[in-house]
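Continuing from the previous page of notes. For each protein in this section, the sequence appears first, followed by its structure tokens. Read the first protein now.
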Amino acid sequence: MQQKLILTLAVAALLLWGWQQPSAGGSWLDAAGQLLMVGYFIVAGLCNLTREQIKDHIDRMREAGTPLPAAAFWIGMVLLFTGCALVLAGWHPAIGVSCLIVFIIAASAIFLRFWERKDPMLRKLFQNFLLNNVAILGGLLLFLDRLPR
């Protein structure tokens, strides 16, 4: 119930933000793209902040050999939410997008090593997740390129 409330509030905040001008100074298509991109990261981040998800992520990071997995998890969350906040506020959005780029690359490198999976179905699933993150990375790079210099 609490998670649904948090997600509802996050979606409402994003919709309210969507009525503003896009931070890149571009069209409403730019605003929609920014809103969808940031919305994805906010919802994913909030879903990962339950006690069970935090423990699961830290355990999987430990198994993957990530140094200081608890600290790495929280640094990732700071990168994710800081990046989203900077983009939404339109204050140094290039830094915000850069935070999201670092986050998606690090998360993919830690969690989506599909070649290590023995089960063919899991291998394919993780490969698809990695390809999704590559597409999101492409969107972030386009977003970064469209920001005023």
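Done with the first. The second protein uses the same format. Note its length before scrolling.
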Amino acid sequence: MPGAFVMSGARYDKVTPVNLTELIVGLAILVGLVGIVVPVLPGSVLILGAILVWATEDGSATAWAVFAVATTILVIGAVVKYTIPGRRLKNTGVPNRSVIVGGLLGIVGFFVVPVVGLFVGFVLGVYASELQRVGRDLAWPSTKAALRAVGVSVLIELAAALLATATWLTGAIVT
């Protein structure tokens, strides 16, 4: 049949090409996902912005519904991202001050040793703060608790971002 597309024995009568907007949005979402794991870029914000651009360009009710669902998923993810690890840190006794010191030294570390310095600076900052607060014997267990909390936070944000991405992919295929 003319115009039919056959792949692995399956026949598709119509193949919809990806338009330029979808390609750019997909790449921006991919960069956003990387930005969640390597916290250099605001990953969730980038993903939400990319889906907004797609919904605006597409303009259909389905596209706006996809944007609403993706927004809801990312907002819930952001709330849970701070709630669960924060509660865990509070239960282990690690104060916000130690995490803030770790974050600040992480930022300094990023500029001293690009990318890797962010992680090294964070660990050193939390450890130094906890060393000053609780002493040598308890500083490392507190630092590990802070690292676990940050890891859980990243996983929660990544899960929400992947769900929002799956929502966009479904919407892009349907529209």
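What the second structure shows: The longest strand covers residues 5-7. The chain has one domain: 5-174. We return to this in next week's lecture.
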